């Protein structure tokens, strides 16, 4: 009998020892999926949040920096109805694809904060009256140019048209090469076959008056003379003012070349502004930003980018996850990111904030670029946007690598998009 | 007497079956059930991570994968103007000309047909070169010299690195400017202008991928061949030498025949693995050029076409199965 009691007591002790960590876990954990250049600031924000809310533990999961790969990963989480990730950072073009798996912020009292944000983005994130994502930051592509080189070669301002840009880039490139820098190039952009090329190519097409691939009446408009002119023009840059390598470049790889002082112009997102001005940057203080050029002056177009915060339907801590997402989208957090990393806030009042403007003066001048950025046709083609975009960037990529001309590629593309969406061709 | 032994035999047999039940159960759970699920899904239009109703579509996924059409292509027209669009749209696969007339082959999923061709070319050259280099390395490492043990360990390094990691390393080596090692190296030798785009130039993509795979998997080949070499008894060589056979004769009469079983196993291993290649293609050429597996992944995850992707999986399974049977028959593995 005594033996039995001893055994029982011992097993109870062992069981309770093993369950201790479980009992101690009254801190809820909220996991955020972040990728690319947002990881560091997400960690800072998580720490800020945990200081105020010691009972919640915020963890960061690093995901691929290529947005195409990140979407692939998210879809796998959603197919498995995984509760591993609570808060997802999602691209501005994904709400239509992911809406079924995300919670409605309106159920958690988001009504009182939506008015502070840009209307266009709130509209983009609202599907059937459900606000499925909070805006985190907005993006519009800009033309970054080297002020010192433009001065040296006798130009008094950034180019307003693509013709001017081509001429300036060619002149500066020839000059720098004759000085001995064989790796210098005139103009850098993102030409790899991925979502980034959809952004770049949409800007070329829109800035030539070639439309936005699919118009808001669900008509396919991509096969037109201006669009063909735009894509052919970009293909002519490869190997001339842009390196042949440009057909393999993404945001970060192109930034590396630029930040090492090996380019006169680059098309990129605002985040590279503060990185270019960091202490170890070769080009610190030697560059400025302008709107992208157009076919004619004033025809500039910038693709609407930016990332949103969404909470998974399969999360086990929805309340806490929503609270974390709300904090990360709050005025305080967006101001921090604007000052530290030049990410564009989605809260209108921050564009008048003195501290923000001091660190990123271009926010004031280029407010219009961000306000009037061209959206990709993600809402109109939902839920097939990913397929439409893949067809588009693959077609453009085949023109850039010289496999076919723009007329043939875009002619084929219009039927391809018709095949995917069932829309009429205009 | 026979009655008793017969009973005993039956008893043993039923006991054997009972003992096999766990194994069979596990096989059913981990192999047959998922495979059956894939085959079932391949007859539907299921959407990955979707909430829509799934419908049964019969053989539709399979027929669309292999639908081909040939049309004449007039000089002043583009492919998309000639190829049929109803009920399914055909896209250009390739063009050819006979008797001064241009013809075009259209396919509903040209990328899939190209993926099969890419994979087979990749497999053929990669396995051939790996076997060749593996053989040479194994012969060298098999001879006695100082530091042989260290040599063998070093030799295995590339194989020990995870594929995705080594693919990322190669991405930097192959970077299409002088930032990349290979361009730097070649331009120092006076080859190219330091701007060769190994991974975006369509003529260089497959050779680059084959090069990376050869770098990575030759050690594995060498290891398997080396194991075979060590099974060859030394007495045979001694006897041959006494009979006056030269080195070359020894190699073809002793080494090669005795090595056949291990070589066959190595070849089957590598061929089947190469046909499934995914990581290299996905990391290095992504959406530009597909292998069978990376195309399958794109259809499943990128396009969310789970039904079609399942059909592709079944086709890949059958192709690999055919290769396996072919190898077994020609190399006579069963008899060994």
TrEMBL record, chain A:
UniProtKB keywords: Signal, Transport
GO MF annotations, alphabetized: maltose binding
Pfam families: SBP_bac_1
InterPro entries xrefs: SBP (IPR006059)
A single GO BP: maltose transport
GO CC annotation terms, alphabetical: ATP-binding cassette (ABC) transporter complex, substrate-binding subunit-containing
SUPFAM superfamilies the record matches: Periplasmic binding protein-like II (SSF53850)
Signal peptide annotation: 1-24
Family, as annotated: Belongs to the bacterial solute-binding protein 1 family.
Stated name of the protein: Carbohydrate ABC transporter substrate-binding protein, CUT1 family (TC 3.A.1.1.-)
Species assigned in the record: Halanaerobium salsuginis
Automatic annotation (TrEMBL), chain B:
Membrane-spanning ranges: 20-40, 115-141, 153-175, 263-285, 306-328
Main location: membrane
Protein name from the UniProt record: Trehalose/maltose transport system permease protein
Source organism of the structure: Halanaerobium salsuginis
Similarity comment text for this entry: Belongs to the binding-protein-dependent transport system permease family.
UniProt entry tagged with the keyword Transmembrane helix: yes
GO biological process: transmembrane transport
InterPro entries per record: MetI-like, MetI-like_sf
Keywords: Cell membrane, Membrane, Transmembrane, Transmembrane helix, Transport
Lineage of source species: Bacteria, Bacillati, Bacillota, Clostridia, Halanaerobiales
């Amino acid at each position: 009998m005594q033996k039995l009691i001893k055994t029982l007591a011992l097993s109870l002790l062992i069981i309770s020892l093993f369950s201790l960590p479980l009992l101690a876990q009254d801190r809820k954990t909220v996991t955020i999926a972040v990728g690319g250049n947002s990881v560091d600031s997400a960690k800072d924000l998580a720490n800020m949040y945990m200081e105020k809310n010691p009972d919640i533990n915020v963890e960061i999961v690093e995901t691929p920096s290529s947005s195409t790969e990140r979407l692939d990963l998210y879809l796998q989480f959603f197919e498995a109805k995984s509760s591993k990730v609570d808060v997802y950072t999602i691209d501005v073009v994904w709400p239509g694809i992911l809406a079924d798996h995300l919670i409605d912020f309106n159920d958690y009292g988001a009504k009182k904060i939506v008015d502070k944000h840009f209307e266009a983005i709130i509209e983009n994130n609202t599907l059937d009256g459900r606000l499925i994502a909070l805006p985190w930051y907005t993006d519009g592509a800009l033309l970054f140019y080297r002020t010192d080189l433009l001065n040296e070669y006798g130009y008094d301002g950034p180019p307003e048209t693509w013709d001017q840009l081509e001429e300036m880039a060619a002149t500066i490139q020839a000059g720098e090469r004759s000085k001995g820098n064989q790796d210098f190039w005139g103009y850098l952009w993102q030409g790899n076959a991925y979502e980034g090329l959809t952004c770049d190519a949409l800007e070329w097409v829109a800035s030539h008056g070639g439309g936005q691939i699919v118009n808001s009446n669900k008509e396919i408009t991509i096969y037109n003379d201006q669009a063909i002119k735009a894509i052919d023009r970009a293909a002519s840059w490869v190997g001339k003012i842009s390196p042949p390598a440009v057909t393999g470049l993404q945001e970060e790889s192109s930034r590396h070349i630029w930040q090492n002082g090996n380019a006169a112009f680059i098309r990129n997102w605002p985040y590279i502004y503060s990185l270019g001005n960091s202490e170890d940057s070769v080009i610190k203080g030697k560059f400025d930003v302008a709107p992208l050029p157009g076919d004619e002056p004033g025809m500039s177009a910038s693709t609407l980018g930016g990332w949103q915060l969404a909470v998974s339907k399969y999360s086990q801590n929805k309340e806490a996850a929503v609270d974390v997402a709300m904090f990360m989208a709050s005025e305080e957090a967006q101001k921090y990111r604007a000052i530290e990393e030049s990410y564009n806030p989605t809260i209108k009042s921050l564009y008048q904030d003195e501290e923000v403007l001091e660190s990123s003066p271009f926010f004031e001048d280029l407010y219009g670029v961000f306000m009037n950025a061209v959206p990709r046709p993600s809402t109109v083609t939902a839920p097939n946007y990913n397929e439409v975009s893949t067809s588009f960037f693959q077609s453009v990529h085949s023109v850039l690598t010289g496999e076919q001309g723009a007329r043939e590629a875009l002619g084929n593309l219009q039927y391809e998009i018709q095949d995917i969406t069932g829309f009429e061709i205009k | 007497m026979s009655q008793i032994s017969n009973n005993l035999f039956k008893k043993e047999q039923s006991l054997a079956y009972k003992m096999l039940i766990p194994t069979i159960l596990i096989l059913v759970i981990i192999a047959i059930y998922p495979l059956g699920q894939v085959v079932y899904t391949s007859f539907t239009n299921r959407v990955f991570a979707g909430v829509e109703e799934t419908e049964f579509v019969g053989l539709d996924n399979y027929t669309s994968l292999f639908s081909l059409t040939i049309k004449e292509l007039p000089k002043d027209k583009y492919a998309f103007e000639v190829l049929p669009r109803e009920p399914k749209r055909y896209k250009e696969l390739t063009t050819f000309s006979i008797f001064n007339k241009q013809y075009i082959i259209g396919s509903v999923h040209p990328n899939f047909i190209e993926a099969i061709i890419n994979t087979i070319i990749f497999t053929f050259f990669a396995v051939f070169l790996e076997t060749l280099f593996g053989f040479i390395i194994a012969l060298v490492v098999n001879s006695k010299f100082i530091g042989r043990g260290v040599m063998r360990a070093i030799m295995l390094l590339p194989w020990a690195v995870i594929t995705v990691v080594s693919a990322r390393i190669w991405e930097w080596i192959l970077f299409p400017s002088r930032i990349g090692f290979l361009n730097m190296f070649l331009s120092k030798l006076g080859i190219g202008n330091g701007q060769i785009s190994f991974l975006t130039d369509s003529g260089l993509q497959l050779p680059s991928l084959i090069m990376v795979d050869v770098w990575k998997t030759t050690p594995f080949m060498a290891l398997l061949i080396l194991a075979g070499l060590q099974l060859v008894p030394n007495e045979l060589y001694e006897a041959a030498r006494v009979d006056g056979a030269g080195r070359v004769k020894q190699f073809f009469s002793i080494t090669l025949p005795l090595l056949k079983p291990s070589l066959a196993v190595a070849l089957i291993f590598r061929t089947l693995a190469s046909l499934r290649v995914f990581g290299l293609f996905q990391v290095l050429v992504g959406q530009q050029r597909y292998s069978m597996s990376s195309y399958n992944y794109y259809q499943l995850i990128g396009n969310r076409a789970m039904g079609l992707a399942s059909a592709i999986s079944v086709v890949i399974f059958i192709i690999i199965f055919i290769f396996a049977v072919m190898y077994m028959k020609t190399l006579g593995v069963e008899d060994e």
